[in-house]
Amino acid sequence: MKELLLSAISTKKNVKGDNERMTKSKEFLKEAFTGESQAHEQYEAFADRALQDGYPQAARLFRAAAAAETVHAKNHLKALGALEDTSDNLRKAISGETHEFEHMYPEMLEAAKEEKDKPAEKSFRYALEVEKVHAALYAKMLETLGADQEEYPYYVCPVCGYTAEKKAPGQCPVCGALGSKFQKVE
Whole-prediction pTM value? Predict the structure, then answer.
């Protein structure tokens, strides 16, 4: 998804409407955005492991650093001019999620099957199925953007990332996790 977003901004229209190539600084901003985003996720995972290992203070440090990496990533994205209005951002999200479930994850899943890498296969399969859901949720939001909208939470499966509107299902339709384990997102 990040790569698709970043490729969409590799050329920009200048004030005359002509495409212009990215400068070295913009290329570095793309690279830095990717690195900071990955560091955030890695530090969050490290924090979870530190808690499992009984080190809550190490977990706090990892989470603090993860939050800082998010600040950096957002600053880089802003400097790239990649944040547009919500309808454009929803279109980018739909495009990115669709690319992932139509092209990226099928190729990855096939490779994992050929290599008999069961953990990779499971991870790719979960992501492929959930990206379909995300694309549909974004499309639904885009269709109703600007209209009076009901406000409600989303629920995210902690195992596969399946995302549900309004309430968690009794059981995740992708991985079978109990709905009671879903994380509520306000």
Answer: 0.84
